[in-house]
Amino acid sequence: MLRLDDHWVWDFWLADDGETYHLYFLKAPKAIGDPDQRHWNVSIGHAVSADLTDWTVLPDALAPSVRPAFDDYTTWTGSVVRADDGTWHMFYTGTSHAERGLKQRIGLATSDDLHTWRKHGTAAILESDQRWYERLHTGEWPDEAWRDPWVFRDPGGDGWHMLITARSPVGDPDQRGVIGHARSHDLLDWEAQPPLSAPGTGFGHLEVPQVEIVDGSPVLLFSCLRTELARERRLAGERGGVWVVEPGDLLGPYDPSKARRLTEESLYSGRIVRDRAGAWVLLAFRHTDDGGFIGEITDPIFVCRDPAHGLRGTQPLPM
């Protein structure tokens, strides 16, 4: 488990160099008092582990830039991949003081060793496209959702894909959440594509998406709290947490209306990863209990894909 005495920890992503797991995570000092303000007092922390359980905390990986820059206010959730030349690429979310943190963009940093990161200039590498995505002040959502980039290779070897937390410009405002999509051939130049899911599936947003092949079948994870579910879902008594849907293809289309909860809201921002024995495990951050926000990352929870029931915990998950 990753627990810091003086900082809250929440969204995270991992890189595996074959010997060591590198964990990158959002962190904010508890000295600010109010955990709801953590998003605006954030840096990207770094820890390493051999077993996904015992973590050694290292100096932070990234922090907001000096003004003016697209990320001079916040640096938020992302993912890491390794290019063909061995360079590690971290894609992350940035917001600026210029829009009071309300417009989200995707940025890039690179590293040779997963420790020292170099930002790719002061400009974002990818912004939302108004042809397919809701922009700031064009909808009834408080911000422009364009965050949580999850990057992976094209299954056929044709470049790279990015999944993004985004919203459609059409449909009921509380059901506009979609899985955004972008493509690149070189990890540097990106072009937004139409979303890989449709609006109207009961979610205001689908956060921290991740797609993997588990036991031969594509699995999409995303997270959504009860407060961001569509009104009809809330009235039906549904709750939030980590959700899973199993599309027929790694690149979708995805149908979140068929998603089921993998965990309850006490766990959030779930990620699955293979341990050294080759088993799939889930990590998530501990979100809430009766005493409020917790802010720490769990030990690995073993999961498997049951042909009859899909992805599930090998032991009962918090539900």
Any overview of this molecule?
It is a single chain. The model has no long low-confidence stretch (mean pLDDT 95). This protein starts with 6 loop residues before the first strand and ends in a 6-residue tail after the last strand. 2% of the residues lie in helices and 45% in strands. The protein is globular and about 45 Å long. Strands 17, 18, 19, 20 and 21 form a five-stranded antiparallel beta sheet that branches. The protein has one helix at residues 231-235; strands spanning 7-16, 21-29, 43-49, 56-62, 74-82, 88-95, 105-111, 118-119, 146-153, 160-167, 177-184, 190-193, 207-214, 217-224, 241-245, 260-261, 267-274, 280-289, 292-297, 301-306, 310-313. The longest helix is centred in the last third of the chain and has 5 residues, at 231-235. A hairpin with a 2-residue loop joins β18 and β19 (292-297). It has one domain (7-313): Glycosyl hydrolase domain, family 43 (Tachylectin-2, Chain A), CATH 2.115.10. The protein has 319 residues and is mainly β.
Based on the model shown, name its key terms:
mainly beta; Glyco_hydro_32; five-stranded antiparallel β-sheet; single chain; Tachylectin-2, Chain A; 319 residues; glycosidase; beta-fructofuranosidase activity
Uncertain residue ranges: none
Q: Name the average pLDDT.
A: 95
Which structural class matches the secondary elements?
mainly beta
Strand fraction equals over 45%
The helicity comes to under 10%
SSE string, helices as H and strands as E: EEEEEEEEEEEEEEHEEEEEEE
- Give the overall silhouette: globular
Radius of gyration over C-alpha positions, nearest whole angstrom:
18 Å
The CATH homologous superfamily is termed Glycosyl hydrolase domain, family 43
Distance N to C terminus: 20 Å
Keywords: Glycosidase, Hydrolase
Domain Glycosyl hydrolase family 32 N-terminal: 19-224
GO biological process, one term: carbohydrate metabolic process
Organism: Thermocatellispora tengchongensis
